From TrEMBL:
Family per similarity comment: Belongs to the outer membrane factor (OMF) (TC 1.B.17) family.
InterPro entries associated with the record: MdtP/NodT-like, OMP_efflux
Taxonomy, superkingdom: Bacteria
Pfam families attached to this UniProt entry: OEP (PF02321)
Keyword flag Metal-binding: no
Record keywords: Coiled coil, Lipoprotein, Membrane, Palmitate, Transmembrane, Transmembrane beta strand
Subcellular location as annotated: Cell membrane
Topology term for the membrane: Lipid-anchor
Keyword Coiled coil among record annotations: yes
Protein name per the record: Efflux transporter outer membrane subunit
Source organism of this protein record: Sphingobacterium ginsenosidimutans
Amino acid sequence: MKKFHHYITILAGTSLLLASCSVGKKYTRQDMELPDNFRNNEIVLTSDTLALSWRKFVKDPNLTALIEKALIKNTDVSVALLSMQQLELSYKQSKKGLLPTLDLNVGANRTWLSTNSLNGSLSDQFIGTPYMDDYNATLRLSWEVDIWGKAKMQKEEALANFFGQKENLSALKTRIIVQVIQSYYNLIALDEQLKIAQKNVQLSDSTLSMIRLQYNSSLVSSLAVEQAEAQKKTAELLIPLADQNIAIEENAISILCGGFPDKIQRSEGLDATVVGGTLATGVPAELLSRRPDVKAAEYAVVAANSRIGLAKAAMYPSISLTPSIGTNSFQFNRWFDLPGSIVKTIAGNITQPIFQKGALKTNYEISIIEREKLAVQFKQSVMLAVSEVSDALAKIKHSDRRLQLIEAKSNSLAKATSDAALLYKSGMANYLEVITAQNNALQNDLEQISIKREKLNAVVDLYRALGGGSDTE
């Protein structure tokens, strides 16, 4: 017995000595080879640009109320929060990896033995019954010695998964903020398109009335009246289309805000929807710490790196100690008759996988490939982030130029429409010139609204691409 205890002591000592070994490698970020600046960047760079809170970026009180509602009631956010709670519990559980497990087993059984067996004959002789009872209560402690640092790697994986989900939640909130803002802009743009259509219906109606008077005076043919009627219908067709799109956009915003389709309160005109001023873009490398989707992609690589270590550790031997103490008796009234009923056991085990049909090695190789895949995806997310900033900068730059050009075009077309009406009244222009001038002005006004909306959406895209969307005041 002393010799056995000696072996157990050696086993425990060896386990503690090897417990400092670890087969997992520490994660190191790959070289991104990022450019020094963003393309199309004409904004003054700063080295300490921080993510701008959406509350400072958005100035419209109606839009602010919608975003607040969306961040609280959006169903995707609710699901993401529940996922975070799951991963938080997993992380808390992983911190207990070094603790032993303790089980209590209490049982009783009765066995009717064969009278022709040795145990059966002895039972009838010594106990005086044709059956044998066995009452057992055992408290068993089991502890696996963490030789290869598996508990640490499990904790690292769980922590990376938790922080990855946290960044995914931030990315989701940012995406919802942007979707609400851009849908809000689209809704106001549709309002302006409706006003332009209504204005052109009134203008076309005045032109039609003037042409009808000339037709009644036999100054123009019926063709002129029909052309004027067609021009009026062109403007009228825009009204039900705008009403339809407005209803659809309001429904979309309502769903984003976690509610059923309803009317949306909004400002009057795109010029009233003020957003934050010029955004300092910083340098591409800062996106690694600003963009939540990029950070989530890196945390996925960290978690995969820990899984490689766990897969490798599964191929190595494991050492466990299992002491137990309890009571055992064949008579119920003497079950807890101490110390006679006490039974004690101590065991040490070394388990070395030998032949698992190559499963352990395959799992290890798969985990390496999985990490490489996630590393490529992480690099791709960085490249995409840099590209999105450059795209947004290009859109802002060129939409400003387009707005300048279309403003000059609007002034020319407004004068052309007015001049065409005056010349027509004096007989120096025909009805086709009047209708053409009105149609050109209508299309130009609609295009101007589209460019304004594109400019505002580009600013919002830049805000998101730079990692904006935080709740920090």
